[in-house]
Amino acid sequence: MKIYVTNNYIDFEAPIHMTEDQREKFIDFMQINYSDIGVREVEEVSKRMGSVSRQMIEWTADDYFALLKADSNEELSRETGRTNMSIIMKRGSFIPEFYSWINLKGYSAPITKKMVNEYLMERGI
């Protein structure tokens, strides 16, 4: 089973094993939290290790600077060629640490690429 939310599906990375009662409760929970949800039965396809080829994309100072913009995760995903989840995870770790560093340094707005470069150099990133 895959659960679709509008045009995308939620991928939990691994199967979630549950009883039929648990499954019904889970679907009810998802429908409460996502108004436009549909459930469709699908046949699971097993993947062997190494069957998916992904290339690691290094994060540049420009990429980090872009994370600070008000653009949506989807827009940044398209601009940088990264997955939406990659953007979410990087924003979640980078932004709080960066703003904490800015406060320690006594910097104020507007944030510049020079600040981001300095942060990356200090952190060895």
Verbal overview:
There is one protein chain. By secondary structure, this protein is mainly α. The protein folds into two domains: 3-33, no CATH class; 61-123, no CATH class. The protein is 50% helix and 9% strand. The protein has five helices and three strands; from the N terminus they run ββαβαααα. The chain has helices spanning 20-33, 61-67, 73-80, 84-105, 113-123, and strands at residues 2-5, 8-10, 37-40. Helix 2 packs across helix 5 and helix 3 packs across helix 4 (84-105). The longest helix is centred in the C-terminal third of the chain and has 22 residues, at 84-105. It is elongated, with a radius of gyration of 20 Å. The model has no long low-confidence stretch (mean pLDDT 81).
How do the strands and helices of this protein lay out in sequence?
Blueprint: E1 2-5, E2 8-10, H1 20-33, E3 37-40, H2 61-67, H3 73-80, H4 84-105, H5 113-123
Antiparallel strand pairs: 1-2, 1-3
Helix pairs in contact: 2-5, 3-4
